[in-house]
Amino acid sequence: MIQSEGEILHIIEGFKDRTLPSGEWNHQAHLITALWAHTNFNSDEAVCFMRAGIITYNASSGGRNTATEGYHETMTLFWCRVIDGYVKAHTDKPLLLLCQEFLKSEWSSKDLPLQYYSKERLFSTKARAMWLEPDLKLFLE
């Protein structure tokens, strides 16, 4: 669990300048980065920050962005929508507390997208390339 603003800034700065070790670019780091983005930019700007950042981070850290690996548009937009709603509902909280509480909540579960998407749809080439609406449960923003 994240314990300090310094840990958050380590992730954000490493993501922005592409020096974060790839082993540290995990699910929690993705969520922390999106939380930071949604507290520092409006919704559309946060999405652009995440999209461009993930694509360039992947490429710079030896990853590939292809039809089967790397950047995933539906997953990115899904998490941005979840986090945007969470941030808007908790505007009174400082970033560290926001991150800690979000990461402890049900909203941070790695399996959350599978409550809304079938595996076939979510892990399709089409979902990786473009936003697809959920096929299991309506997504409420």
Itemize the secondary structure elements and their pairings:
Layout: H1 5-16, H2 27-40, H3 43-60, H4 73-89, H5 95-104, H6 119-122, H7 125-129
Helix pairs in contact: 1-2, 2-3, 2-4, 2-5, 3-4
Task: Describe this entry's structure for a reader.
With 141 residues, the chain is an all-alpha fold. Helix content is 57%, strand content 0%. The protein contains seven helices and no strands. The radius of gyration is 15 Å and the shape is globular.
Number of helices: 7
Largest sheet: none
Distance linking N and C termini: 26 Å
Low-pLDDT parts are none
Strand content: under 5%
**How many structural domains does the protein architecture include?**
1
Helix content: 55-70%
Structural shape: globular
Estimate the mean pLDDT confidence: 95
Rg of Cα set: 15 Å
Which class best fits the helix and strand makeup? mainly alpha
Please provide the count of β strands: 0
Sequence of secondary-structure elements: HHHHHHH
